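Many introductory courses stop at the sequence. We go one step further.
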Amino acid sequence: MSSAAARWTAADLPDLSGRTVVVTGASSGLGAITARELARAGAHVVLAVRDVAKGEGVAAPFEGSWEVRELDLASLASVRAFAAGWSGPLDVLINNAGIMAVPQAKTEDGFEAQIGTNHLGHFALTNLMLKHVTDRVVTLSSGAHRIGKMQLEDLNWERRRYDRWRVYGQTKLANLLFTKELQRRLEEAGSEVRALAAHPGYARTHLQSHTGSRLQHVLFVGVGNRLLAQSDVMGALPTLYAATQDLPGDTFVGPDGFLEQRGHPKIVGRTKAAQDADVARRLWTLSEELTGVGFGLTAASPSAA
């Protein structure tokens, strides 16, 4: 990456007129910033959110074209309804929504809440929407993928003692493995659509405030967010870069600063576990079994070459 690219900001976004982008979880945090900047650059942005009224309130000051549609990634019925209601091409799907280190809970479909929301919900959404996608899918991971360990025999943590941070790390590892296998399948299908991933570093958002732990709330919100975190505007840059720049499939974008915690976007590395092609394939197969959703691209799909 050149020195000029190393200082890339949202002001460097290209003209996105005529392009349509879906951003999940865009009613707050990084998703809201991502949606705002893409709309400002000319894209028609669809905020896919659980609370439509909240999404409309967030988007009201946006410059440019936008709409809000209901989507709850913790409900496969909601994911299916969102996809069924879509018509026409979609240039970019940004899988931004997520929850972090929350107390143990289950989704509507009985999945552990973090894996159900962060991975399985987006897995189903991507494959149901893939026939419409013309350019790329960007999925948000995290530096926390480095603490993740993929145990496919107990993906939903039914046999192990629940550890909210290890679970979160597993979901972020799953995001990278999903991106890897999605890119492989796209290439195999002869599609020009690309799958990429991004992570925001340590960004100051609401995400850290839902752990259910008073101590962790004090550490992350009271101390970390004030002293260590970068702004949500900076945290959104890797996603915006991955969504708009000419990058090869399976690229991972993160901040360029110390330990990738803050800074301008650059291409970053990942753990060996996140590059394991065999585990990526096995995770995909398991995800198909759990969600009932298979690879969404066929020879007749518009995004196939």
